[in-house]
């Protein structure tokens, strides 16, 4: 079975404050082999959620903070220290607004927190990772909130080589090291073959698999993500309130309703939508039903309300499923 292009683990799905059912915001994103995993936002208590999700902190490649509100970043100093205690020495990338970096530096200085590795801070622009047969790219897109907030567009590309095993068996070459050599691009001498040489190009097919997800921070205008969502298979976005509650004081809260996100996702043609960052008033089954029904009335793609420790995958065919 082909591994998924993306695996998303929701570590926190509450807005503002944690409750018994939901921790504050954090999302782990695993992608192409060799790239490590990404953490989008790091609210207080994220370390405990990582233990429950069994995600190895030593394989963390980058932390992406959407904005400088505590429910999205207060867990960061402790996490970075724990990563060092776990034995990390390799550099770690941090994509965040400048205030997050300034606060982190002050916290480390005032608490004498040991971080025995380099934290490579990126204030603007994107981040790229490239391996032998895969690439990963993160782009930042500005949103509308009370403080500067961003979404992250994460693209993965993976090249896979497949052997035509049926054709190989017809030659009489038994499975083994020669098959592996052909898979890796080497021609193989074989007495049973006409011309005494099996050419790798005759028995392999190269497939390029691409996937793209968009993970939004707090945002009062989902339409700002239209460019980011071009050809994306999945949008993860906050739905802090229902529309009627948001209408009471939209300027103060500066968040999105389930209806607003659904309207945008429908108009942008995004095939999968996961809503998260729920106000505590919706944490029970009845509250979640209100959000789901409001979104489902406007959006006809695949729709989920995320819960803590939910795991979603995006496969090479662009399909998302809840594991």
Write the layout of secondary structure elements.
Layout: E1 6-12, E2 26-30, E3 37-42, H1 46-53, E4 60-64, H2 70-73, H3 76-85, E5 92-95, H4 98-111, E6 119-122, E7 127-130, E8 134-142, E9 150-163, H5 165-171, H6 177-183, E10 188-189, E11 197-198, H7 200-203, E12 204-215, E13 234-238, H8 243-246, H9 250-253, H10 258-268, E14 272-276, H11 285-296, E15 302-305, E16 311-314, E17 320-322
Parallel strand pairs: 3-4, 4-5, 5-6, 12-13, 13-14, 14-15
Antiparallel strand pairs: 1-2, 1-16, 2-3, 7-8, 8-9, 9-12, 10-11, 16-17
Helix pairs in contact: 10-11
Overview of this protein structure:
- By secondary structure, this protein is an alpha/beta fold.
- It has two domains: 6-160 and 206-322, Ribonuclease Z/Hydroxyacylglutathione hydrolase-like (Metallo-beta-lactamase, Chain A), CATH 3.60.15; 161-205, no CATH class.
- The chain has helices spanning 46-53, 70-73, 76-85, 98-111, 165-171, 177-183, 200-203, 243-246, 250-253, 258-268, 285-296, and strands at residues 6-12, 26-30, 37-42, 60-64, 92-95, 119-122, 127-130, 134-142, 150-163, 188-189, 197-198, 204-215, 234-238, 272-276, 302-305, 311-314, 320-322.
- The chain has an eight-stranded mixed β-sheet with strand order 6-5-4-3-2-1-16-17.
- Strand 7 (127-130) and strand 8 (134-142) form a beta hairpin.
- Helix 10 (258-268) runs parallel beside helix 11.
What would a concise description of this structure say?
With 323 residues, the chain is of the alpha/beta class. It contains 11 helices and 17 strands.
